[in-house]
Amino acid sequence: MQQQLCSCHSLVQERIQRRWTNCETERPQRRPPSSLAGVLRLLLLILCLPTRTHAFVFKVGVVGPWSCDPLFGKAMPGAAAQLAVDRINMDASLSLGSTFEYVLLEEDCHTSVALQGFLDYYRRASAFVGPTNPGYCDAAALLARSWNKALFSWACVGHEQDEARGHSTFARTLPPPTRALLVFLRHFRWAHLGVVSSAEEGWVETGRQVASALRSHGLPVGLVTSVGPDPASLRHALARIKRAEHLRLVILCMHSVLIGGETQKRFLETAYDMQLTDGSLVFVPYDTLLYSLPYHDTHYPALQNSSKLRRAYDAVLTITLESHGPSFYQAYQQAIEHGELPITSNPISSVLLVAHALKAVQDSGAWLTGENLARHSRSLAFPSFTQRIRTNGSGARLLDYTVLDTDGQSCALHPTHRIDVEAGMVRYLNRPIHFPHGHPPKTDSSCWFTHGKICTGGVDSFFVLSIFLSVFLLVLVLMGISYFIRRRISQIRMVRGPNKILLTLADVTFINPSLSNKKLSTDDSKDSDTGRRPSDPDHSLKSPYSASSLSPATHENSNVAIYEVRGRGRVGLWSMQIPLADLQDLLQNEDVKLDWMFKSSLLLDLIKGMKYLHHRYLCHGRLKSRNCVVDGRFVLKVTDYSYNEVLEAQRFPYVQPPPEQLLWMAPELLRVSYPGLSGSLPGDVYSFSIIMQEVVIRGPPFCMLGLSAEELIQKLQKPPPLCRPVVSPDYAPPECIQLMKQCWSEQPEKRPPFEEIFDQFKNVNKGKKTNIIDSMLRMLEQYSSNLEELIRERTEELEIEKQKTEKLLTQMLPPSVAEALKVGCTVEPEYFEGVTLYFSDVVGFTTISANSEPIEVVDLLNDLYTLFDAIIGNHDVYKVETIGDAYMVASGLPVPNGDRHAAEISNMALDILSAVGTFKMRHMPDVPVRIRIGLHTGPCVAGVVGLTMPRYCLFGDTVNTASRMESTGMPYRIHVSDSTVKILLDLKEGYKVQLRGRTELKGRGMEETYWLIGKEGFTKPLPLPPELKPGQKAHGLQVEEIAQYKRRKAELASRRN
């Protein structure tokens, strides 16, 4: 009414404005009296002020699965809602001044269909009570908000709907059931839960929502599953429950067995059979949280009639709404007498809550909107059907829950605890819970119920960390002790035993005793700028390598050894005579041919020698290609190592090496004050990488850069950019080049040690030995292997070509015929008693060909037959041949298949006809391609005809008749003979045929023929046959369609020009 007054006001104001505009146009000098206009506007403004509406109908829609779920239907929602509406209309305290009505709105048991149905309820109600399926609660709340209509729910689980900003028109008529569950679980300290729902989609969604709500509070819900009524499904779900670890409680989202839930009854009885009701688990029905279940002097027939269920129900704790009044109990007794079972009073309470919220909106003088209606449902108190309804300031209903238990023997339910949701407490009612065997399930750690605390299942994380650190420190200590013990044993072995390396004078035999007994002269001491006498004890060798250990010349890839006679001031060096040359000379000699095998052999010898030195903590310090010598057996040996330690210990003056001698030195050693005086283990790795570059490309260091030695040293000392050799991948394997780049890394700690280099280099050579003699033998073996590999490759190529030829032959002829021809046998003609033949051609093909280029005709047939070939691969048929636009297929030969030949050909014909309905020509996409199909069943003879280009051909009257069936057919039709129809009907596979009538077949006279129009279970679309005018031929359609296409194409071309 208020909106009508406002619209009337706008209309009147528009007319007044138009009238004054006309008056001003006619008499521009005269203006209306301002007092009169002001009075009119004031009156209209008063009319548009918000006023209460009288004489309107407020209709509440009660949403639920009243038809698809029988147990919900037994709740008598219509009677409950009518009772609530009658009380509202007769209650003088409400004085709504309007008629309050209800309407039952059906909710489908499938979530998607239920949501679709809810979309249609926009105009059927002013507010809604429901839905009962939590699966679409959020969507329904959003829809109600967009409609600006209030939604009062008593079954929604998710906490998202409680956000006033996103769901301003949503209100609850019951507190969320999961809140009562949390209080209950916290009291008994049962945290590890499982959720089992029945197979109905509404209950499955309920189970998921309950699990999600409990997980949002930090509880470990490990098992969420659904069960059907069949024993296999029940046992499978219970087996999963039995395997689950630490499970304490299982929530059953299904109809309670006490009100007729058959799935819960079978579930509990099966759990009893599987010994899961022994007290280790507690089962809690979820649906009883949504209504008040009677328990005062009440015996349920389900428990009375089954002793097994009664014993199994001892493991069940039933939580239900507490009812303080007798009204619902009396109604329950009356319903039992009349054979009906009112499950819940929720519709009554919900409708009453809507009415009182409506009264609060009218009393406040606010507009009647869904948002105001939901907001004014807070802070209410009024009597209901069974109890007094109270809501707090946030709209949550204040209710208590009762925990009911049985003793496993009787059928009565006894209250043991009361759950105060508002206070978050569980109160004991002086009756203990009777657990099977007297023992409740184990309790969990209280941290699961502590907000903001991460729970580890009761284990102290600090204790676990302390244990881990203690074990780690103990392992480190043991490793340190082991290291020092091994080091001490190594030191003892250096001075004792047959393998000692710390020599005395008695252990050494000198070739020239005069040189060995010669003391260092005073002049030498002066040249060293020390001023000390040679006999000074501090004048002996100071190097940590040679002072504590010396290297014997026993390794095949080392060539020098250093020794010291302690206390004598004498130092000795020896080396072996190498009959050949150093590595640098060998690389520069172009007469010596070195392939990768020889190069890898030399590099591996170098790696072995350096690995031996580094293993004994000896640093070379001067490694270059000049210090690597090659003997007559082509074995590389490392020489001139540890010279720097000798010179430094004897205080010889430092001499700056020339730049050409520093190209092998590591960059970090070039940046010190005296480059070349000292070395390091990573520095030896860098020097090895430069030698590796020399060996790989057979050229001096950095030869590819074209810079002088002085310029190279400056670039190495002062990067960036980094200056390194550039080696092409053609010179060595990629792994070798990658290893070389790792060894010349700018950061010493990133260079691999020689043990790792040795392992990587062996992988480069695939673990093969690189001995020269072995290499020569391996070359001979490789030649033999290459020849065998070449023969094998040629054999494989021949086999592949043979397979291609055989495949081509089997595509032209049946496999059995092809095998007979390959072995040179004669293929005798074969008689087949029953086969079904398929013929098809393109309607109007001559007209299409006349209006197309030859290449376009070829493309058309190729595309069409490629489509057909792909379809026949899915059926037991054999493609005989294609002649022009004719396509011939047979089934039942060359391999007989009983009576299946008619079914296979018919299925194939339906698939081909469906595919042709969407087929398009490339050059004329708007012109449809129509085919005629003919099928006939009968005997025939098959044989191979010809030698030069043999063909597998069919002969007999069956072939002619099948061709006549095709030629007398119609576009987009499958023409079937009487013999084929008889076999199809005998198969009883649901083939649909339509009588065409008597048709004249050339050579056979008049016969009754049929149209094959489909099959049961065949869902592919079939093209509609065109309607032919009297006297019109099928190919005439193609002429008209091609002409229309050409006209459209010409018009389009003219528009573009």
Automatic annotation (TrEMBL):
It is found in: Photoreceptor outer segment membrane. Residues 836-966 form the Guanylate cyclase domain. Its EC number is 4.6.1.2. The keyword Phosphoprotein does not apply. Residues 542-553 have a biased composition (Low complexity). It catalyses: GTP = 3',5'-cyclic GMP + diphosphate. Residues 473-764 form the Protein kinase domain. The chain crosses the membrane at residues 462-485. SUPFAM superfamilies: Nucleotide cyclase, Periplasmic binding protein-like I, Protein kinase-like (PK-like). GO terms for biological process: intracellular signal transduction; receptor guanylyl cyclase signaling pathway. One of its GO terms (cellular component) is plasma membrane. SMART domains: CYCc (SM00044). GO terms for molecular function: adenylate cyclase activity; ATP binding; guanylate cyclase activity; peptide receptor activity; protein kinase activity. It holds the Pfam family PK_Tyr_Ser-Thr. InterPro entries: A/G_cyclase (IPR001054), A/G_cyclase_CS (IPR018297), ANF_lig-bd_rcpt (IPR001828), Cyclic_nucleotide_synthase (IPR050401), HNOB_dom_associated (IPR011645), Kinase-like_dom_sf (IPR011009), Nucleotide_cyclase (IPR029787), Peripla_BP_I (IPR028082). Its main location: membrane. Belongs to the adenylyl cyclase class-4/guanylyl cyclase family. This is Guanylate cyclase. It comes from Aldrovandia affinis.
